[in-house]
Amino acid sequence: MKLLVTGANGMLGRAVVEAATRLGHDVRGLSRGELDITDAGAVRRSMLQWRPQAVVNSAAYTDVDGAESDPVAAEAINGVGAGNVAAAAAEVGASILQISTDYVFDGSKREPWLESDPVAPLGAYGASKLAGEQAVAAANPVHAIVRTAWLFGAGGRNFVDTMLTLASTRDEVAVVTDQVGCPTWTGHLAEALVDLAERPSQTGIHHIAGAGSCAWNELAIEVFDGAGVDCRVLPTTSDAFPRPAPRPAYSVLGSERARPLTLAPWQEGVAHYLATRVPAR
What we know:
Layout: E1 2-6, H1 11-22, E2 26-30, H2 40-50, E3 54-57, H3 64-69, H4 71-91, E4 95-101, H5 124-139, E5 143-148, E6 151-152, H6 159-167, E7 172-176, E8 180-181, E9 184-185, H7 186-197, E10 204-207, E11 214-215, H8 216-227, E12 232-236, H9 266-276
Parallel strand pairs: 1-2, 1-3, 3-4, 4-5, 5-10, 6-9, 7-12
Antiparallel strand pairs: 8-11
């Protein structure tokens, strides 16, 4: 398969390039510096030049709090930019796989969110990703929209690295117990995305995240245990850490598909990442 990956220098994009290459595909990864997806003309030229069979759009504005102060920038990349990629892919007959988020939900349920559940993002970031879902579906009939959650992996800022950095200078950290989701290692997700790209008939929305669920507090404990770090994790709530963007309290993803793509338990993802992680210098 001839595969094009946008946002290839990001945490997920680089994992997709590595997984697809390892599986024998002809992969072209384009970083943000090489392709600005908000430039429709540049996207079209790249697509016509490379003529992929499938495209994974992992280029994204991921600063959840920053989106609250600059929703226009978030919308330009996550909404309009995603539509640009989908439309250009359709022009060359390529399928599009768009990465979305659990933040399209408001967190009001207390059971896993399914693909058909009503969306109601709480903040600008979730709204921009929802706009991307809609733009992609409108621009390319051969599309798969993958909602995932709580990503961690090499090559980008993530919760696991943040906790380990804090633990290097502190004896204890306070982490919230009132936000529950599905931690997802990019290594596991990337292989599932390549699998999905190989099957363009699997159109529509897919929920793919680490199996199981936990609060951020539980994830921190798992990270410290796995890394052999002696740092106490104290329980706290979101009220103690006010942030510009609201977060959904419960954003666990489930699937109603007959044969959903499933990932290994999130604890296995943590173990794999810790085993291969290169600490920042």
